[in-house]
């Protein structure tokens, strides 16, 4: 990272000839602005990425928030931090900005999040997740740092787009609001509460949720819903201490074996979940959603090659079809030790964390209960607290289950009137867009829609292979330059 840095993301407003201004469209203004500033903008993005943004570091999360308020104010926006006084400052605030335009007939809200996933420095090539570096990958520059793709790129693109429009003297026609969250990667537990406490400020005719990756073909994508998510953590029990596997093997039950047998019974060989009623209640796609899905590119072969997959689940359905179905994933499983720390012993417990992705029509608690009922049907005594000695002695098999609140799925109609304007604005910058009914990941769209009395459309800009949530997270810089053009078109949308 360069040692000499400019202290802020404030960009000079450059006067342009009147004849040129009259002809410049928002995406052209953004393109012209960026074309001569690649090095400067990359350095400024590095400065933003160098501020750590994980939940375990609240002081630096606040630095991110204060930094962004300053950036909005430098661009003439009214900006502040939003919270609910009842929280007493215990959670990261929302960064809020607003640009009012007299005579505006609509209000457009741009959402992104400034927090990032936890980091394990030893897993990163540099060992420094918050020391951004630029590397060439397949002949193109990418910037590596936590938050590069998820989700600081979207915030930086919005700020830069605003600067580009101001430099080109392109007036805004709508009222523009920015809502940037600092708790998304921790589950957005307080998002709705903070939005409800500030309802007059956060309402909009549409919320444009700028998070996630574009299609694997690199074409701009618009997504009209998101899968929900719920978790279950399951712990099963063997002896109350580790036992020598020679002295007690074949006699003392091994909880690791019990757990993998339990989990293996939840799916068939094609990855289809066989838990009773798991797929019941799915709200079917409408004709327009089915048409969009049929017209979207099928990238399965490309992805199989990229990911070195000899087979895929789903019974020959392609990826985009399967994103519109609920899923069951094992996030992690632990018991005993492996590698150099392995011992010849029977472990006392085994634990797995299940990730249940949801679609419209299936509530989080309903899906969690279906899994719990299945576990009970396999002969397990279910406890919602660590089991007592008496419970372990009086039941052949015990499962301690921890469940979260979950996040329901959400879907906006593709034929929503304002959606046509959003599509038109983006296509002026990026050409024909891909429309999808469902985003594979989970975003708190329902909380936004309830609290802000609005509808949501997701506008991602990151590359699909950005290592989101993993080590060596990165952003292809061309995605950033393209994203700035996209955001400029949307900010200037009538």
Structural commentary:
The chain is an alpha/beta fold. It folds into 2 domains: 18-226 and 410-491, Aminopeptidase; 228-282 and 325-403, Alpha-Beta Plaits. It contains 17 helices and 20 strands. Helix 14 links the parallel strand 15 (381-383) and strand 16. The longest helix is centred in the N-terminal third of the chain and has 17 residues, at 58-74. 41% of the residues are buried. Mean pLDDT is 94; it is low at 1-16.
Provide the fold topology.
Layout: H1 18-23, H2 26-35, H3 38-49, H4 58-74, E1 78-82, E2 94-99, E3 107-113, E4 133-137, E5 140-144, H5 152-167, E6 175-181, H6 191-197, H7 199-202, E7 206-209, E8 221-223, E9 225-226, E10 228-237, E11 243-244, H8 245-248, H9 255-264, H10 287-295, H11 300-307, H12 319-322, E12 327-334, E13 345-346, E14 349-358, H13 364-377, E15 381-383, H14 389-394, E16 398-403, E17 410-411, H15 417-430, E18 434-436, H16 445-452, E19 456-458, E20 474-476, H17 477-491
Parallel strand pairs: 3-6, 3-7, 7-19, 8-18, 15-16
Antiparallel strand pairs: 1-2, 2-6, 4-5, 5-20, 9-17, 10-14, 10-16, 11-13, 12-14
Helix pairs in contact: 2-5, 2-17, 3-5, 5-17, 6-16, 15-17
| C-alpha termini separation | 40 Å
- In CATH, the homologous superfamily of the largest domain goes by the name Zn peptidases
Q: Count up the domains.
A: 2
Number of strands: 20
> What is the share of helical residues?
25-40%
User: Helix/strand/pairing class, anyone?
Assistant: alpha/beta
CATH-assigned fold name of the largest domain: Aminopeptidase
Report the CATH C-level class of the largest domain.
Answer: Alpha Beta
Report the principal-axis shape: globular
Per CATH, which architecture of the largest domain?
3-Layer(aba) Sandwich
Q: Mean of the pLDDT scores?
A: 94
- Content of β-strand: 15-25%
Unreliable parts: 1-16
**Number of helices, where a helix is a run of at least 4 consecutive DSSP H or I residues:** 17
